[in-house]
Structure formats: C-alpha cells, structure tokens
Amino acid sequence: MNIRLVFTILILLIISNLNAQEVLSGLEFNESVKQESKKTIENLRLNTNEEVNPILLPFFDDFATSKIFPDENLWLDHDVFINSDFPYRPTNIGVATFDALDSSGAVYSNADWIPFQADFLTSKPIRLDSVFNPVAVKLSPADSIYLSFYYQPQGRGEKPEAWDTLVLELSHPTGDTIFAFYDSIDVNVEYYLNYYNTDTLFSGDTLWSPPGCNENLYVINYSTLTAGDQWVKVICDSVMKPEYVWEKVWSTEGMSLAQFQGTYGRDFLQVMIPITDTIFFTKDFQFRFRNYASIADDVHPTWKSNVDQWNLDYVYLNYDRKNSDTTYRKLVFSERAPSFLKKYEVMPYKQYRADAPTNTLKPDFEMFISNLDKVGHNTKYSYSLQQVNGSYSSYYDGGSCNLPPFYSYGFQNCETGCGAAHACPPTYPFNFDFNIDTASYIIKHYISDSSETNILVDSIIYRQGFYNYYAYDDGTPERGYGNEYAGAMVGYRFNLSTPDTIYGVQMYFNKTLNNNNEIPFDLLVFQDNNGKPGEIVLRQQNLEPKWNDGLYKFYTYLFDEPKVLSGTFYIGWEQFESGSLNVGFDTHANSANNLFYTADDVWFQSSFEGSLMMRPIIGSIGGEYVFGTDENKTHTSNIKLFPNPAQTKFSLDLTNVSNTEEAIISIYNIYGSKVFWQKGIKGSFNISNLSRGIYIVKITDGKSVFSSKLIKN
C-alpha cells in the first residue's frame, strides 16, 4: 500500500469526524440483491464440473432488464447489481452497478477502510479467433475489433474516492496448462459390491476410481448402497485447461459525479478499447471489469455500509468497428417515468380529491428521451392512463417531432412546440370516485420512429398510487440518512388538504454492520411554526429500528392515541444516543426543502437532496381507519370478533350473517392491500403469518357487508 495514499485517507477520515452531524451513508444490505440471491441459491445449481461453451460475436449488453443479476448468457458472476435506481441520466434505463456489496447483497466480509477488491463482472468465454456468419473467417488485428462501454462514477449513490478505481482487464493464454476440475462418471453399484466382496456399501466407505480412470483417485461414499441401487457417481480423472492471465488495459480513478460532469461535460462517458495484440485472438477470450472500494473506519460504525458506486452501460464487443463507432440505432427513455403529483409519489385519495387538480397535479412533467443513432429520427410520443380495477382511462398523443442525435444535441427538449409535446407533456387529471378510498393507475409511455421497417420502439410504465399514506420517496433507498448526536431531532413536512387523522408512521431502516443503528428513539408529530417544526403534539416513546421481511418493506409504528390534524404538520424523531439511525434515503425525488434537523436546539433545513423514506399513515376523522378496496360501498354493519387483540387466530360472531357457506371474508392491511381471502366462513381463522398491526376484517354475504377492526399482536 502506498504510504502517501494511506496518509491521505487518514487525513480525510479526520476531517469527516469534524463535519459529522446530519449525515448520508450507503447501504450495508441491498435488499433487491439479497432477495434475488435467495432465489438463485434455491433455483440455480451451477455444475462447476462442466466447461462453459464460448459464445460468438457480437457481444452486447445494455442491461435493460428487470433481473437483478447479469444475464447468464453473457456473464459468469453475480457480483454487480442490475438496476435503474443508482444511475443518473443513463444511456438507457438499466445499468450494472459496482459497489461494496457481494452477491448476497451484504457488505463484503473483507471490507475495510483500505481499498479492497470488490465486484467482478466477467464475460463468458468468447470466440475471438473466428467468426462463423455468414461464413467461417479467422479474425486478426486487421479486423478492427473494439470493446466499448459507458461508465459513470457515483450516480445517485456514494462517490468513489480517488483510490477506489474501476478496472478493465483482458485475458490471454500463457502457453501452460493448469488443473480445471475432476471429471466424473457413473459406476454400477454392483462393481463396488463385487470389488469389496460385500452386500452393502456404508457411509464413509472409500470408492476408488475404476480401471480406465486414474486409479489413484477416490471419493467418500455418503449413503448406504445395496444391490438394489443402480449407480453411484465417482471421479475419474483430472481435466486440464490452458492457463490464462489477466492484463489490465484500462482503469480510472474515483471522483464525484459533479467532478466527472465538470471534467467531461457528460453524465456518462463512452470508452473505446481497440484489441490489437494477437495474444487475445483465442477461442476462449474473456474480459472483465472490477472495482476497488473502501468503507468507513471504526470511528463511525453506523456508516459501515455500501459506498463507492460505479455504473456501467452499453458494453459492446465486435469486429469491423472504428474509434468513431460510438452510436447505436436506438430510441430510448433514459430516466424512469415520473409521478403526476406536484410534491408526492403517493398521497391519500381523499386528500387528492379535496385539492385536485390545481394544487396537487403538475401542469406537465419531464421525460428524458434520447436518440442514440448518428442521424435524426422523426419520432412519435404518447402515453395512456388506465385505472386499476376501474373503468377510467385517458390517452395523450404528442404527435411527431424530429429528434436529433443525443451525442451532439442531448435529450429531446421543451424549447420547440413539438419537442415540448414529447419532453414536457401535460398531465391528465385522475377521476374522482367517492365510493372508494384508494385508487391506482397504470401510466404507459411510448416512443417510436416513423420507419416502415425495423421500427424503433421503447416504453416505460409508472404506477400512480393514491393510498392511505403520503410518500415523497419512490420506495427504493440509494443512501441512508441520520443525525449523529444524542438529543437530535428530525422533522419531515407534509400538508393536508382537508383535516384528517394520523394513525402511525412507516419507516424504512437500512441494515448496518452488526446492526449498529439499533438506537432508541421517540416517534414525533409536530405542528407547524412558521415553516419549521413547532410544538410536539404526538410522541410515541421508547422505539427502536425494526425491519419486515421482504424487498424494501417498511415497518409500521402505530400511535397509541391517533390524532386529528389539519394543514401543515411534521413527522420525525428524537434519538437518545449518538450515531445514525440510517433511515432509507431516496436520491431520485428531492424533498430537501421539507426535511429539517436540529443542531444545538435550532432547526435547520437539510442540505441533502433526496427524500427520507418515512411516511405518515393518514385515515379518516373519528378514529376509524380508511382501508382502500375496489368494492363499492353497500349496507355496512359491525361484526364482533374474538379475541381482539389476537396473536395466532380469531373467530367471528356470525349471528347476523345470512349465508355462511357463500359468504366471503377478506382481511386488509393498513395500506389497503388484501392479505387474506376465503369463501365460506366457519371455525377460526389463522393469522399467525400476518405482521403485527391493525387490519380490517370484512364479511360479504350477498346482502350486507360486515366489518371490524382487528389488532394483531
């Protein structure tokens, strides 16, 4: 390790100690990767005793997939995170993100404040010796082979420091051979029974490789085998393979996204790597990217989480290319589709109806549309809006407009009439339905060109929700937020269009190394005081961070005494120990003007752009929860259930239910989602799999609707 490098790191760490109060940190666990890793372990059984067949040129991946891990048809490992959350203005939606998390979604076990090797993205073997279409031709440096890719440091995550580099390496053979794996064969059990002159093979017996194999090899038997068992698998011989080594051909130092944009004038930079040395022209050529990362030291244990993100996009390897071959015949959306709401990703439907559309809907919204080709295209843009479980729909046609190449002109802009119709289209208001309490809408955006053949098309989807909570965030954390000092308070501003009741708060906490953010806190609700948090009107005491199983599942904290609020209010917390609670922080939507924190008992507006993953649960005045269903209201009566609260099961008083065999029981959680449904009502109902909280139990018998509140302990 370079002494100057270590000294520089130490100085920066000391400076960071002096500057710690309101802090942003990375994630120690990536829940998306963690969940997908479980599926991979359960569903994918890699046979390491099989050679990987080489693939043919061209090699191309734009990572435009909903999968979490890289495409197994192109890549060998599962370290990087395929996503649309961490890139800023990517080439198209979807990148491969390198960071400090392993393939299970956790910080690498060898992570340290000194740079360590983190993620690898390794191609499958590639036939770089020949091409076979339309005819077999041997490749050589004269065929002008280029490997190109786009990259970006930091994106919406944590900036890599200068020593947290991104590296590209190419493989080539040394001329030697090395051990690859042991080949195996199936041998009839009768062979070993006769060989050992026995009628049974027991666990722990040694099975030597049979004649024709390397008879110095053996396996240990782990089961009881008799003449009725037909075959047993044993190793036969060593399989050797050519030895390959990796040669670094490109690397770049870490920097912030702002530095990167200032240096290159772009959000992503494309790199062109010519492959000219004949040592790479083999039938098993490979290339790989890898990154170095470094995490916080022991002085800040609550910061020990994911850092040093690099985003990679549009990896392309082919022959007959030039250094100027930097364009692609594609029309793409670069960013995800936005919310139609002015301030929120989600808001209660009742609050929307009370103040729509003037004060709740944006007049228009921004779409990031790019033409990656070298020539302009006449493009068409439109979007459709369809209510989920409802009949309301609308359609917007933005007409046609010329879209020049992105490389020279950037995204479609709003400065011309037709450009504005595509890049800044108007919103259409949502319908008012007073028979329901929640609603959601699917908004599909389309872009295409006017080609008669090989039409260019791209589309993205956004789900606009009106549920029983407010949310500035999109539900995915890129960072973690905290206020470092004991006694610190945080306040998060929201506005009610009409008076309503707050029942609780949803919070998402990032998991940190050794759960170092398990810090006690009180949950608070404040009145407004001239644009900052004022008097505390609700306090739920002695809480600590908790997590629900599943992908980015918020934990719900309920108030013992819900309170009617009006106008502007704030939710937040007061903590009683030093350290960061590491609450999820979404860097896509920016609500920094609504987030406040205390320092020396004085309120300050947050300096971090993004949205805290903290959501107030809003119901109706009078103490009843509002649970959204798509059923129209009919005659509704209360029904008794017991015990209540319940832990594992409950029963119902069915005296007034007319037809129990045909009656339907539905249970809804506080978000309006149906968590249980059953036709035919008898006996008790098992709720052991439900999380702690409040639910609505609804019974319909064809004539009446019965409901009751259920508390699950």
How does this structure look, described?
- The protein is globular and about 80 Å long.
- It contains 7 helices and 43 strands.
- Mean pLDDT is 86; it is low at 5-20, 41-49, 297-304 and 620-636.
- It is mostly beta strands and 713 residues long.
- Helices cover 9% and strands 39% of the residues.
- β32 and β33 (602-605) form a beta hairpin.
- The protein has 5 domains: 3-165 and 253-318, Jelly Rolls (Sandwich), CATH 2.60.120.260; 176-242, no CATH class; 331-466, Immunoglobulin-like (Sandwich); 479-618, Sandwich (Jelly Rolls), CATH 2.60.120; 636-712, Immunoglobulin-like (Sandwich).
- The longest helix has 16 residues, at 3-18.
- Strands 2, 3, 4, 8, 15 and 17 form a 6-stranded antiparallel beta sheet that branches. The protein has a 6-stranded antiparallel beta sheet with strand order 28-27-30-25-32-33, with no helix packed on it.
Q: How many angstroms does the end-to-end distance come to?
A: 54 Å
Query: Helix/strand/pairing class, anyone?
Result: mainly beta
The percentage helix is: under 10%
User: Could you say how many structural domains there are in total?
Assistant: 5
Total number of beta strands: 43
CATH architecture label name of the largest domain? Sandwich
Q: Specify the number of helices.
A: 7
Q: For the CA atoms, what is the radius of gyration?
A: 30 Å
Strand residue percentage: 35-45%
Look at the structure and give the mean pLDDT.
Answer: 86
CATH class of the largest domain: Mainly Beta
Largest sheet: 6 strands, antiparallel
CATH homologous superfamily (4th level) name of the largest domain: Galactose-binding domain-like
The coarse silhouette is globular
Oligomeric grouping of the chains: single chain
CATH fold assignment of the largest domain: Jelly Rolls
Stretches where pLDDT is under 50 for at least 5 consecutive residues are 5-20, 41-49, 297-304, 620-636
